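ok, trying the design again with the full structure, not the truncated one.
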């Protein structure tokens, strides 16, 4: 069923592909599930994304219906899982209301497909729908170094309305753990979906700055 728009709660699509960085996908999903402003989350994981979840998080992903709860570490209340092969799924149509989408992590291969309007999977089609409908699309690229092809695809997508948000950790908040780095990055991503998080560190200026 479509999300209840009268509730005022957001509907978000989360795509997971095979670029390294499964912890960012897991933490983003956990934060979205816990956010009272979010009503529904559509989770789609590519084939390479499945391997990523197994290799980096040691998750059992043989039963697709259990993937949301395994990622969250508890039963999913808002997250529904959609097969990447299901091009006929709800989010493949612009008439189905969603507020935005994030692909986290996003491979340069997925980036190239979206940049060239090729929708052979549900992740690619849902991203294409966000672009054509003028909805927020965030691509969390995790690759380096970048070739000219990658950069040109990024420029093309940015011009089309996507937000290119490379997975680059920040250190000005003095992180003590890897999770501190992950949380701060995910907070910044969710802020671009209109879901600012209270735990996000916000820069207030240098300590020796004179007002």
């Amino acid at each position: 069923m479509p999300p209840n728009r009268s509730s005022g709660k957001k509907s978000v699509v989360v795509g997971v592909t095979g670029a390294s960085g499964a912890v960012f996908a897991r933490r983003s999903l956990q934060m979205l599930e816990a956010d009272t402003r979010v009503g529904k989350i559509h989770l789609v994981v590519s084939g390479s994304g499945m391997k990523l979840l197994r290799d980096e998080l040691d998750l059992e992903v043989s039963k697709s219906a259990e993937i949301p709860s395994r990622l969250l570490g508890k039963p999913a209340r808002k997250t529904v899982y959609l097969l990447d092969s299901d091009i006929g799924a709800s989010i493949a149509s612009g008439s189905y209301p969603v507020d935005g989408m994030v692909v986290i992590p996003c491979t340069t291969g997925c980036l190239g497909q979206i940049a060239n309007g090729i929708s052979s999977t549900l992740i690619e089609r849902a991203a294409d729908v966000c672009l054509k409908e003028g909805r927020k699309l965030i691509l969390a690229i995790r690759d380096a170094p970048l070739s000219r092809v990658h950069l040109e695809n990024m420029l093309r997508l940015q011009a089309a309305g996507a937000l290119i948000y490379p997975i680059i950790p920040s250190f000005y908040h003095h992180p003590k753990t890897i999770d501190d780095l992950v949380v701060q990055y995910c907070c910044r991503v969710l802020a671009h979906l209109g879901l600012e998080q209270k735990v996000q560190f916000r820069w207030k200026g240098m300590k020796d700055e004179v007002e």
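Keeping the full-length input from now on. DSSP finds seven helices and six strands in the chain.
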